[in-house]
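Good morning C.,

I know you're traveling, so I'll keep this short. The sequence:
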Amino acid sequence: MWTRTRIKGLLLMLVVSAACRATGPQPPETITGDDSDVTIVPITHATLQVRHGSDVVDIDPVSGVDYSSLPPATIVLVTDIHEDHFDARGIGAVVGPNAEVVAPAVIPSPPRTVLMTNGDKKDVRGVPIEAVPMYNVHGETYHTKGRGNGYIVTVGRKRLYIAGDTACTPEMRAFTHIDVAFVPMNLPFTMSPAEAADCVKAFKPAIVFPYHYSGSNPQEFVTATQGSGIEVRLRNWYRR
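The tokens, ready to paste straight into the viewer:
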């Protein structure tokens, strides 16, 4: 039902999405893999690229960003239907000639789309990908359970968790052996920095990147995770 609160929330989301897009990639990050390094490029808001060898995985690419300095994607992951995650022009801007697009069933399917639902595990171009739940838990209905996907991607024998639009769900708290996590923190669509900190302390990723934090203060997350043994890499996803 399109209640006044929900309409107001969706309008706010559109404003936030339009305001938060950076013009280009941020400096790359390096994660030491078992065979060779994994490169992570923060781009903007919920958009990033992961590279390992010949594998180039773009997550939630959006239009309005200059991708010319980056290699084309061999795999694109789409987490949700909202425009800061699903942008057909953004996908078109990053895909290579034989790229596969991985998406939940709610997404209008472009060619070469691999549809996944929560709990699915597939090898896509040789890359193990697991679709995991992402949803609200406190009565909000911006993201209902089963509609969108978070993803656990394994490259260089490292397990990377891309949370997407989610609160601190029981499924997230139960994850194990996560090497790198990308965790959102913006109410009312996901969770607060304090809730995000409580959640990562439960599943203990080795490294966590706060992302998707427009309108929040991610330093609160940094402070709340001190002493946990988790390495927090706080980067500016909204630089212009």
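Safe travels,
E.
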